[in-house]
Amino acid sequence: MPEQCAFEYAVIRIVPRVEREEFVNAGVVLYCAELDFLAARIELDEHRLRALSPEVELSFVREHLQAVVRVCVGGVEAGAIGQLPTSERFRWLVAPRSTILQTSATHGGLCQNPEASLEWLIERQVRAPLTNRSPGHPEERIEMESKSDLKRQYKETANQAGIFLITNTTNGKVFLGSSLNLHGPLNKHRFMLSIGSHLNSALQADWRRSGPEAFTFEIVEIIEPSEEPGFRIDTALAEREEAWLAKTQPVGERGYNKNNRIRE
Question: 66 and 11 in one domain?
Fold first, then answer.
């Protein structure tokens, strides 16, 4: 092994609501060209993530953090990306994204052992700095108060129910969806497309063919809560689903939807 090898790294972040730009560091990906070394270490503090975003789907987050590890390892289990050279896989992992999983800017350094450097970066950049402090430490109380503030702010912000639309601007085809909590599904679709693992094969194929810049992601309607007697937000959403299905006709030649069941 050379005495000193140059390496690059980026911190892996979970951004539950992209528009708020709040995140939790969840791991580090490190690349050393001289040793053809690429690896990711994941250590997600789920309690911190829950405090920031109580509605986050942890199984979804875990699945896609593991996808990062698979891309680093390479091979058929990582799909088409796993077949690329090590350098290209690293560039793909650290490319800017507006999804629930993002990375920091890349940084550089020198090391003798990239595995040891990865462990050092996890300790410095990811693990909670208060881990070894006794309960009741003043800084721990401050952190807990901050978490309480985050929880309170979330509860004061109701989930938004409504309709979203993904549009291929090159051919006009659309994917129509709806949810009682719009932010989760919209982030999920964008992320699944970006890693080449979307379950809608036609949509994924056009994404690969035309590139992400050809697609728009938009919330087209939000269902406003009402205090009228008998109002149910799920019923109101179902009525608007029918209207948007008739308007956009996303099933068949004009769209990517396989059927009229668009609720997520």
Answer: yes
